[in-house]
Amino acid sequence: MNSFAREKTVREGSPEKRKAILAAARDLFVREGVDRVSMDAVATRAAVSKRTVYDYFGDKRRLFLAILSDVSESLLATGRRAIEEHLPKDAPITTVPQLEAAFTALAIDLGATVVGSADFSAGFALVAQERLRTPTTEDDIETAPMQAALADRIAHFVDAGLLDTDNPRLAADHFGALTLLLAYERQPVPANADPDQIRQIMIDGAHAFIRAYATR
Question: Do the Cβ atoms of 17 and 10 come closer than 8 Å?
Fold first, then answer.
């Protein structure tokens, strides 16, 4: 378990203020580095008092971990929504071409809502930045729950005779590597990202996944 899962905010307070503080801190941390950003700067950017920042998060360490937790929760919600929309267990998918169409739709959706999201990209950039500064850090964004949800759906289609694997979790990791990870590598800055290129990467990744795992 990553350390941020054990950290709690000092006081929940107003959801709007909490959201404003997290957004301000995330943007400042990515732009300037965690060590260089003061709590005063976060408070000013969020249009709240410094006391409010400390009341809500306690210190900069807890604030940093709260950002990772917030991104993790949003990522899981986005992933689960996309999986349920494009790969529902009750979907009338009975052929490999139908399954490829469903996985392609899922990939395109995630390309738009995750890879194309400035919020998610800032969170991943923050983790990468901290790893350069502290290579031994275990702080990270939790992707395992979303991968587990996808693995569960892959197992469903294995049982249906459309996919062939005895390790659905590994297959889910491969799908993520062929789509999300590759898209992030090719399009690391959302402001400069090419939506058409992201879409094509996701389509190609879904196709490669089906070629690797579809029953023959």
Answer: no
